[in-house]
Design goal:
Length: 497
């Protein structure tokens, strides 16, 4: 019988050691982990957390929906959440009722769309809490009382070109808004119906003068048009639709029927005005068609006599902060700020006026200086000039005319003497083509008759009167003189003179 060698003994010892280690490891594993069926059972059990019990459903492409349970094991909510696009370390979440899983799915789809717009740079993403706050603010704005909305409109309203309203326009707006506030009161803007506006329209039409009613119609149309286009914090307009559809045809102005002044009438008015205001009439008739407020606002620095340029920069208006006072305000429109040529014949007349009627000859002193112990104003105003002009127009046998007729006369004569519409508008400071055409381009009967006679000559040369022939001859001579002047100018240029 062979005896085990030493080598055999060592191998048997190593094998015994391996078996003991394997057995100990198996015992340890059996102690730590249950069998496979136990693992499945554990995974079916919800995980506990501070807010109760949560069950995780399958993974979504965007966001996660968690099923939340109470301590009694009943479902209490569906929780939808996703990563905050502005701060990836945080989650945006919202809870839904136990039977509103579809709502949670829909909410995540909507949020996914907003996040996508944000990532594309189309629209900034806001936290749902912020959005709800903005929606609440928007709803509050929609229910703004009508009188409060009028006050807000008055504070923020601007002219069509973006400039501040002149004092006179702001006063007209204020009066119209006051009457509208008295009618609609504190009723929310969003609750005013087309029927209420129609009722206001039919009642006001007989209560107000045509001019006042027209201004009020314009203002209420502007109010509701502004409200229907005003975008609130929630991205939607203040009004879903415009309930105001009133018609507001402008009443015919008395100025529309006024004929322009003739040369004789202008001279008669000048002679009937006080000496220190005669130059004002000439400037309005011959230089830029000055409005009365623009003429009153002229300072010595506005006159560039060397280059024969008049700088129109201001207009005289009432001071809104000090009753009874007047200030140098902006012109009626931005187009009113202009540089206009001064005829050479007026330069000596202007120098004489400054020498005789301007005690203060500093650059900022007024061209037309008023010296009256009864008033603290040192400048002439529209009312004071209108008082003097009233007597002058009666002396000229034009009781229908106003100072503004001088402006219409200037614009009309510019057109009749060859100025283009663009030149006329720039010279007079017109901002609107329609206004310039309807109110300032007047028909001159004598000129119209002359044009008609010349037109008839072109068609009936053998049958026209001697008077027409004389007009035709005068026209041809004028054309010849003009042609001679052009020939002379070209000849001088050709000869280097």
């Amino acid at each position: 019988m062979r005896l085990p060698s030493a080598r055999h003994g060592r191998e048997r010892a190593r094998n015994r050691h391996r078996r003991s280690r394997t057995s100990a490891h198996a015992t340890e594993q059996d102690h730590k982990a249950p069998s496979f069926p136990a693992i499945r059972e554990l995974r079916r059990r919800p995980e506990a957390n501070e807010g109760g019990i949560t069950k995780r459903p399958k993974q979504r492409k965007f966001g996660t929906i968690l099923e939340r349970f109470g301590k009694n094991g009943e479902r209490v909510a569906w929780q939808a959440r996703y990563t905050n696009p502005l701060d990836p370390s945080k989650k945006v979440q919202r809870n839904f009722s136990p039977d509103s899983k579809d709502s949670a799915e829909q909410w995540l789809d909507e949020e996914r769309y907003l996040v996508r717009l944000h990532n594309l740079g189309v629209k900034e993403w806001r936290h749902p809490t912020k959005r709800r706050s903005l929606v609440a603010d928007a709803e509050k704005a929609r229910r703004m009382p009508f009188n409060d909305f009028c006050d807000l409109y008055y504070e923020t309203h601007r002219a069509p070109d973006g400039s501040e309203l002149s004092y006179s326009r702001r006063e007209v707006l204020k009066r119209s808004l006051t009457r509208l506030k008295d009618y609609f009161g504190s009723e929310p803007v969003c609750e005013i119906t087309p029927g209420e506006i129609e009722h206001w329209y039919s009642g006001r039409k007989d209560q107000l003068t045509p001019s006042m009613f027209w201004h009020e119609c314009v203002v209420i149309s502007q109010l509701f048009n502004h409200a229907s286009k005003k975008i609130l914090a929630d991205g939607k307009p203040m009004l879903a639709y415009n309930p105001c559809s009133v018609k507001h045809p402008q009443p015919k102005s008395r100025k529309a029927d006024q004929l322009p002044f003739t040369k004789d009438k202008v001279c008669a008015i000048v002679n009937a005005m006080p000496d220190n205001l005669q130059l004002m009439v000439w400037l309005a008739a011959l230089v830029g068609g000055l409005r009365v407020g623009e003429a009153c606002a002229l300072r010595l620095r506005d006159l560039d006599l060397d280059n024969r340029i008049l700088h129109v920069r201001h207009s005289v208006n009432k001071d809104p902060d000090h009753a009874g006072s007047f200030i140098l305000d902006t012109t009626k429109t931005k187009a009113g700020i202009r540089d206009v040529p001064i005829p050479m014949v007026l330069i000596p007349m202007i120098r004489k006026h400054i020498r005789e009627h301007c005690d203060d000859k500093t650059p900022d002193s007024m061209l037309f200086q008023r010296h009256s112990p009864l008033t603290r104003n040192t400048m002439y105003t529209q009312d004071s000039v209108a008082h003097q002009f009233e007597r002058a127009r009666k002396a000229a046998n034009r009781p229908d005319a106003t100072f503004h007729t001088l402006r219409a006369t200037h614009a009309t004569m510019l057109m009749l003497n060859g100025a283009t519409m663009r030149e006329t508008m720039d010279n007079c400071g017109h901002a609107d083509l329609q206004v310039a055409f309807e109110h300032y381009q007047k028909i001159v009967p004598a000129h119209l008759r002359k044009v008609v006679e010349l037109l008839s000559y072109d068609f009936l040369q053998d049958d026209v009167s001697k008077e027409t022939l004389r007009d035709v001859l005068e026209k041809l001579r004028a054309e010849r003189d003009d042609l001679d002047d052009k020939i002379e100018q070209v000849s001088k240029r050709l000869n280097g003179k």
